[in-house]
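hey m, so remember when u said the tokens were messed up on ur end? i reran from scratch. heres the input so u can diff it against urs
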Amino acid sequence: MCDLEFGSGKVKEQSMSGWWHVPWCKQFVQPCLVELLGSTLFIFIGCLSVIQNQQNTRTLEPALAQGLALSLVVAILGNISGGHFNPAVSLVAVLIGGLNLILLFPYWICQLCGGLIGAALAKALSSEEKFWNASGAAFVTVQEPGQVVGAVVAEVILTILLALVVCMGVINEKTQDTLAPFFVGFSVIVAILAGGTVSGACMNPARAFGPAVMANHWDFHWIYWLGPLLGSLFVGVLVRVFSGNGKTTLILKGW
């Protein structure tokens, strides 16, 4: 079974019995708590940046706030959990051998709970007028059925960009880079600037879920689950088939 060496993103082979010899708290509890904390911080900043930006047609401020916040939390917490803070990222990490399957659902639960806490904190620190003017930072870009296809496609493509950066910059031992946390953040900035007015550039079901609960806004919410998860599945298959290291590539191993 593959396991992630969190400090370097290096994938190593380890038996199930060997995996359980690692202290349970360090192997299971600490990473989950870090995913909860990191998701809370990232989504709090993301929501607050949208709520406080009353010129809702401008995406620069939220893009910078969210991208830089993600860079920071990945840089300071990634050594413990891998620095996902996103169910779509955790899914692609499992697919390419960068996260033990046993941790996938606990990670998802912690990330969604972090989204709820972050969105609740943003609501608590915002005036009621600003909160509702921004719909609680929920994704309201799609207003009618005719926009759905474009939004789903945008979410898939933008998530592919983010997932590729994570896979090739953080997890894949052949291409990982010490500046990967900042590359991850920059990919979020670019994605929001490019696709913010098309779909909102969520790329993260936890980021969509928390504000949706706080604002009770569920219109077209499914887009922000389907698009990111499809994008991460595509990248997982792509890396497994063509671009992984010697341990994860399924074909073209000798090329």
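this time it looks ok to me. Strands lie at 2-5, 10-13. if urs says something different then somethings off w ur setup not the seq
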